[in-house]
Please model this.
Amino acid sequence: MGARVLFKRFRGAGERGQASVELLGAIPAVLLVGVLLWQLALAGHTLWLCANAARVAARAEAVGRSGKTAARSALPRSLERGFEFRRETSGRVRVRLQVPLVLRRWRSPVNVSATAALVEAR
Model:
């Protein structure tokens, strides 16, 4: 009977620490998903800021001020790196920004742009 008790004790001992090993294996995947979600949030925020800068530039152009200066003032310094401004036909302005990366060491290949214009009421 002593052999049976000893066998039962060793059979369960092989699973000791299993949850810790599984947690260590899952940590990189959880971190990767977190970084990807943060990058998507950064891209969405950059697109929103780009559209706002285009609207600000269109308003400035409508009253005879510099649209480029107005658009730049509507953006945080962190987005100045890939900033482009262009006047288009019929009073439209286009603002283009480079989406920043979570890992700032590399440059992002993704750009977003927004176009805005003020239409005169008649």
Observations:
- The chain has one domain: 16-116.
